[in-house]
Amino acid sequence: MTKISYITLPMILLVFVLSALKPVQGEFKTTTITGKLSGKKITFDIYLPENYRKKGFGYPVIYSLHGRGGFYKNGGAFHPPIKKAIADGVLPPVIAVYPDGTKNSWYADSKDRTILIETHIIREIIPWIDTNYNTKPSRGFRVIQGFSMGGYGASLLAVKFPELFSVCINYDGGMWNWEDMTSKSRKWQPVAPVLFDNDKIYYESNSSPWKFANLNKDKIKGQLQFRTLVGSLGLRLQKWRNHLTSLEIEMDYVDTECKHDLKCLHEKAGDGSFRLMGEQFAKALTSEAKTGEELKVEGK
Predict the structure, then answer these.
(1) CA-to-CA distance for 298 and 9, rounded, in angstroms?
(2) pTM, whole model, 2 decimals?
(3) 95: nearest Cα among 147, 29, 33, 159
């Protein structure tokens, strides 16, 4: 039986250009920077692929957000599947970044400005990565994904800043609304008093993916691709899908038999996520090449 390949020609070229170098081991390291805006120390993990080059053809970047109760090291759970996807040729070599969302930030900036996770990621880490590493610094080559609280964070940052990302992958994300933020669980105190000073208007103006999907729907439709892998949090994820559908925003929605388990979600349906990323990078590469040719013609 003939094996069917889903890798497009631009994808093959992207893999070839980024891989046809002398063997150099990939590097996974912890980095700490001082935020120019926040003045705070910001620590995160970063992976540089094998054969990483400091100059020349740039690399796509995947930002992976960990779940509630964790820190940046928990983002490493995304790392083995990314490396496997690269080894299998589903992804080209990529840079992967694992920010720190702290235990209970929901990837937001708090009203009192003592917690600045959104600022750290959007205004500090992303510009720093693009300045200090050989990236393709455009939305077509930038992906954000997350698990649990990180799925909420990835969705929030994607719809709030659609000009920065082309793909958003949500792994069983806790798609909370204001009522959820004000409720107390067995383990956790309510989020609303700590992050938002019980101010619903502040929350909806700054940290509600539901509101920002509405606000930015025209920038999102046809530009930002969503994929959701469902474990045990299906009820809220269905509501999130329905909300985007009501705005005519498409989502690849995948039910699984997994519980709230990132490893299981990757094993059951992760390949589809990486294929989506690879196809998007190939599409962006084609668009970039076409634009370059048009500029050459205009410059004659």
Answers:
(1) 26
(2) 0.90
(3) 29
